[in-house]
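[Discussion] Sanity-checking designs against the backbone

I'm trying to build intuition for which residues belong where. Below is a structure token string of 139 positions. I'd appreciate it if someone posts a full sequence so I can compare it with mine line by line.
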């Protein structure tokens, strides 16, 4: 894949993930009924909701910052992995408050987008990891 195509595809995935995560932030931060229900069901209201919202906000910022897009993909992948596992392994389930599984489906879309970003930005992530290692673990 050419670097130009790879960059464009990464940006498309970054925008998809950032828009989906970004549009949920207002609801999490404002204490809307659906996220309050979700985190109450998980036994993590309000602190879990706030932590999820802050984590998603950081992921969105990183996804839209070209030099940190790979890190944003990693963070988004982690947050969405937790969200999807919460749906699948708790009484929360796939369908929440009659949404027909929409939140779960959006979580899958974000997870796939973030996995794609991590793959496409793997060289960026590796060079950043090497720089961090050199800084904090000198030879």
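Best answer:
Here's mine. Compare freely.
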């Amino acid at each position: 894949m050419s670097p130009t195509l790879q960059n464009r595809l990464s940006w498309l995935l970054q925008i998809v993930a950032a828009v989906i995560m970004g549009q949920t932030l207002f609801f999490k931060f404002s204490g809307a009924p659906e996220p309050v229900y979700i985190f109450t069901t998980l036994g993590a209201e309000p602190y879990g909701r706030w932590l999820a919202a802050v984590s998603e906000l950081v992921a969105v910022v990183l996804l839209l910052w070209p030099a940190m897009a790979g890190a944003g993909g990693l963070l988004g992948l982690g947050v969405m992995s937790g969200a999807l596992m919460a749906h699948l392994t708790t009484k929360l389930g796939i369908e929440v408050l009659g949404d027909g599984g929409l939140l779960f489906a959006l979580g899958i879309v974000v997870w796939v987008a973030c996995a794609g970003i991590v793959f496409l930005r793997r060289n960026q992530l590796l060079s950043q990891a090497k720089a961090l290692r050199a800084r904090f673990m000198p030879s």
